[in-house]
Design brief:
Helix 8 links the parallel strand 6 and strand 7. It is built from eight helices and seven strands. The strands form two sheets. The chain has a five-stranded mixed beta sheet. By secondary structure, the chain is of the alpha/beta class.
Length: about 210
Amino acid sequence: MSLLSLLFPQKCVSCGTHSKEPFCEACRPKSVEPLEFQKGRWYLYPYEGPLRKLIHFHKFRQRRDWAKTYLTPILPQKWLSQFDIILPVPCHWVRLLQRGFHHLNDIFRPCPTLNVSLLKRKKYTGYLHKMTRSQRFQILKNAFTLRCPETLRGKSILVVDAIYTTGATCVELTKTLSSCSPLSVTWLFLSHAGISRSSLKSHGRLQEQ
């Protein structure tokens, strides 16, 4: 054991136990099957515990390496392959300047059908977590636009986001995408605020397109 490790023992940032990695084996997210909590809306984890800390460190503390190490490996690749195209919820250019990167692009970059250029957030909405449900729905009206909408005609689309809260982003962006006559619009969230996987009766299965 080195002198450095004796003076500054490494700990899991989630539970505080001794760990050589930022997240110990018990706290590291494991691969799970997506759960459908509403028609066309799926999620992987409750927004709590280690996953919540991972998302927070990635988005707000610039730990992009942790996204590659812990978040990308949990993506259900076989499930994702059912879609013609995967679209991350876009960031406004002001937010991109502030943060320096788009967190969803980091996480889903290995997906071969990921397209980061078709969707645009044309309205700067600020931090939505500080707003009420009604305020979110109001400020997100007409917040999104499409580049080359003909590209999506007749396609099965998967939109990906980090956290599901009120559903305001989901409703508004689905409305924008539906205008280009896709075959289907499905959502996958890394986490869901206010729901437990154990509260749902079964994992459910996405029908083959």
